[in-house]
Every structure is written in C-alpha cells, then in structure tokens.
Amino acid sequence: MSQPPPNFPPPPGFPPPGPPPQGSGSGSNRTLLWVSIVAVVAVLAVAAVLVAVLVTRGDDGDDDKDRDAREDRSSTSTDANSASAGPTEASSAMIEPTEASSATTSAAPVDITNAELDGQWYGRYRCAQGASAGRLRITAVEGSTSELTAVFRFGASTNNAGTPPGAYRLDGEVVDGIMTLRAGDWIERPDGYISVDMIAIITDPAPDVLDGEVNYAGCSTFHFERK
Hints:
The chain has helices at residues 24-84, 89-94, 99-106, and strands at 119-127, 130-140, 147-155, 166-175, 178-188, 197-201, 209-215, 221-226. It is of the alpha+beta class. The protein folds into 2 domains: 29-67; 93-226, Lipocalin (Beta Barrel). A hairpin with a 5-residue loop joins strand 7 and strand 8. It starts with 23 loop residues before the first helix and ends with a strand. The chain crosses the membrane at residues 32-55.
C-alpha cells in the first residue's frame, strides 16, 4: 500500500502559495468600460462627419439647381428679346424701301385730282425676280376727279436681263393724296407671273415722281418718273 508524498516546506526565498491578489477583476472591467466609451465616441464622431458631408452636398446641389434655374430664365429672356428685336428674314425680304420711298411715306399726302397723274411714267420696280424695268401709263377717267385706269408694262433692265416682257391692266383712284391701282386683266403674261397692286402716297401737288409699294408678298417698292 502506497503512502502519500510527504509535504515538503517551500524552498528558501519563495513565499508560500496563496489566493490571487484582490482587485484584479475590477481593473479589467474598468478597462473594458473605457474601451467601450472610446469606441462609442469614435462611432458618433464618424456619424457626425458623414451627416455634415451629406448636408454640404445637399446644399451644393440646391445651389446648382438654383443657378441652373437662373441661367435658364436668363436664356429664355434673352431668346424672347432676340425674337422680338427685329423683323424675320421673310419680312425683311418683302420690305426693301428705297431712300425716295422712305421719304415719301414720312411726308403728308397732298389732295390732288386724277388729272395730275395722267401720263407716261417710266422707272423700275422690285419683286421676286429682282429689280426690273417698268412703264406705267395712267389715264384719268373722264367725268371723275379721282378714278384712274392704267396699263403696266415690264421687262428686262440693265441690272436684270432675265426678266421676260409682260403687261396687264389696272384700275383705281386717287383719294386724299393716296393713289391705289388694283391689278386687272393680262395683256401679255409670262409663265409663272402674277399681276400685282400698286400704292403710292402723293406729296407734291404737281408730281413728277411716283414712289410707292408693290402690294404683294415677295415684292417691295417702285420708282417711276414722268416722261
């Protein structure tokens, strides 16, 4: 039968074994608490930074939208002003008054009788084919002080040799200084041509010049002198 080992005293210089030192567990708990607090603070700090970045981006986006809206409004206003600043290309082509006709339309009309317009008038007119030569024979209707008949002949000019010859009749009147001649029957009609009306403001009681407008889209003015 074996005997239990004898109890030997501890070697000299070493303390006898005993229970673990008091307070070691509480120190570990405090360390874990501080680590947790630091971690929470770090998370909150990161969250605050993210919120600040998002808010800043949102403000920048709103600023960009406001700036774009202002630019759009400015562009729209500029386009509208540009659109209302002058005539279109088509209307510019229709209205090309000469210096003489501009002066005539700005002067007051003079009341005359049809006899003052009776005679031969030579000059030029402008329509889609360009400036062309024209001759207007005006006749005062007997027994009237205002009614007129006329024959208009046109053809090539030194600046436009391609205009074919043509002629048509007109009738109208001169009232309160405004001569109106309305297109009538053709005498000689070139292919593709349309007879047109003529209007002139008379500013001289004994006129030797007629400046007016050819009243048709694509045409503009005429200038005739008495011969």
